[in-house]
Amino acid sequence: MTGVDTQIERRWEQFHTWGPYGLLFIGLVPALATADPHAGAGKWYTAWALLGAAVVLQLWWHSTRPQGPDRRRTPSRAGTAYYAVRWALAFALTWLNPFFAFYAATGYMDADETIPGSRWQRLGLFASAVTVAGAQAGGMPFHGAVQWLVFLALLAANSGLQMVVAHLTEQETRRAHERTETITELERTNAALQQALDENAALHAQLLVQAREAGVADERRRLAAEIHDTIAQGLTGIIAQLQVVANTPDEKAAREHVGRAVELARHSLGEARRSVHNLAPAALDNDGLPQALKKTVFAWGERTGVRADFTVTGTAEQLHGEVAATLLRIVQEALSNAARHARATRVGVTLSFMGDEVVLDIRDDGTGFDPAAVPARTASGGFGLDGMRARAERIAGSLTVESEPGHGTALSARVPLVRHDP
What we know:
The chain has helices at 3-33, 41-63, 77-96, 101-104, 107-114, 118-136, 145-247, 251-277, 289-304, 321-342, 384-394; strands at residues 307-313, 346-354, 357-364, 398-403, 409-416. A five-stranded mixed sheet has the order 1-2-3-5-4, with helices on one face. It contains eleven helices and five strands. The longest helix has 103 residues, at 145-247. Helix 1 packs antiparallel against helix 2, helix 3 (77-96) packs antiparallel against helix 5 and helix 9 (289-304) runs parallel beside helix 10 (321-342). By secondary structure, the protein is of the alpha+beta class.
């Protein structure tokens, strides 16, 4: 409730408290001024007794007002009894002098505050209208048919007007109650919404922490894969070249293999330095993915002595750096596995641009294996199929493997075609 509403409620409370006293006094002054000085003592005594009773009734009713912040009355049996006694006193006073109808008009003000039930409230308003209409018709008792007709017409006017006012007041009270309930519901909804917002903020913060932790873990896995695909493979190639040197008596062939080992060492060193900066494959520094794959496949074939072919289908496009790096690393890992395990005589790599996706196929005619029997990666083992599959899934792609012992292996990586940002 606003400050203005509180002030209005206080004014209404004062009006209902002191209004009956004021109206009784307003009726008393002209009643005394117009009183018949020759009236009998009994009439005067009766009038003063009724006035005293009216004052005592108002003092009693005032003393029963509820205490506390909300001093508004609610309809009750005590309120009905007060209304009935007050009406009887007002009717008797108005019978003695029509000016006391001012006091009878008090019934118009608080029927809804004292009498429970709209039907009984209307009955109370009608009773007050009878007293007021009787005073307006010239005072009671009536003398002649004309005065009765005037009384009935005034009664109809007064009661009809009061019924309309009572109906409008009832509707306004109902609307005020509905507005209060709506405001209460809105406050409850706002409180629940604020609580939900607070919970969402806490959840958002928790999700950010989890996303950050997941990103760190994913970056660690990616870094491990990068090191495996660059430094580890380079060192493996160096060891292989040096083993050939150790086992060959031909000095010229030995120097050739030593040169290859030195070249691999330099290449691995460059990859290590480059990985520290951005972990992007050095092969993609100056070339697009098709050119980088072609050079990688050709260099691998020369180094291993295995026939290696590379083919591009579709219209080649400049790919996003992360997509290109992922596909290049998958090819490097697949070729490394083929050199170590497949004992293949021929390897084919095909890069296909197919509308909204890129497909990378790697096939060999090696010994093959049972995909369902591939052991889990160990601390000493490579990343293998799990690493390639994780790379593809990291960019919303997939990796499928088809192999059978004695019939070679076919890998197919499908990833979304994300173009390079200009």
